[in-house]
Write a structure and sequence with these properties.
Shape: elongated
Oligomer: single chain
Strand order of the largest sheet: 1-6-5-4-3-2
Distance between the termini: 64 Å
Radius of gyration: 27 Å
Largest sheet: 6 strands, antiparallel
């Protein structure tokens, strides 16, 4: 008759095997769409020179309302970076349909607000004396937009948090997959040669072809 300890060992193994499968499929489900996105944009980034983008540039002019002019009135203060006054920022957001919460560059004559974003660029300038406002926005297309998301370029804090969470989910997916490979390797002799091949191919390319 098997001892209690001997009976407990298979139960413990079964428990952890179920846990690994659960963590593996949950992490794969969480990271699936992100993996597809980063796989596709990895290809488009690798062939960025071959994928021609046609930027679309739009320009606009406006006039800051007179009641808001005192908020940006010229003074003798040195050049500085600081946000727009809240009323001016709200007017810019409403007029140009953009977020205006970042730092602007204040000089003696004008206020320059850079508005970079994924897949494009933009800016708004306000003449401090007259209140004349000009803007320019560039749209480089959806491929450029997705490429910038891949790099986390000008995508904001929330997207940065998503990348961190996505990377952690991928790590769990890979580690649980590795342990599952180890548990099933005895019945699948080709497992470790394939794992070794997956390591050897990029290592050989890096050593021989990258200088």
């Amino acid at each position: 008759m098997n001892s209690p300890a001997a009976r407990q060992k298979p139960r413990r193994k079964t428990f952890w095997l179920k846990q690994l499968h659960t963590w593996h499929w949950i992490s794969s489900a969480v990271s699936l769409i992100g993996l597809l996105l980063f796989a596709v944009t990895g290809f488009t980034l690798n062939h960025a020179v071959d994928i021609e983008a046609k930027p679309v540039v739009s320009e606009r002019a406006a006039q800051l309302p007179a009641p808001l002019l005192p908020q940006i009135a010229p003074n003798d203060a040195p050049d500085i970076k600081k946000p727009l006054p809240a009323p001016v920022a709200r007017w810019v957001e409403k007029t140009f349909s953009v977020g205006a919460g970042g730092d602007a560059e204040w000089s003696a004559d004008e206020v320059y607000l850079p508005l970079p974003r994924p897949g494009g660029d933009g800016w708004v300038t306000i003449q401090r004396a007259s209140g004349a406002v000009t803007s320019e926005f560039t749209d480089r297309g959806w491929i450029s937009y997705l490429n910038d998301l891949h790099k986390g370029r000008n995508a904001g804090k929330t997207w940065s948090w998503f990348i961190d969470i996505f990377a952690f989910a991928c790590l769990i997916f890979a580690l649980t997959g590795l342990v599952l490979l180890w548990l099933h390797a005895a019945k699948r002799p080709v497992t470790w040669p394939l794992v070794a091949l997956g390591f050897a191919i990029p290592a050989i390319i890096a050593v021989i072809f990258i200088h």
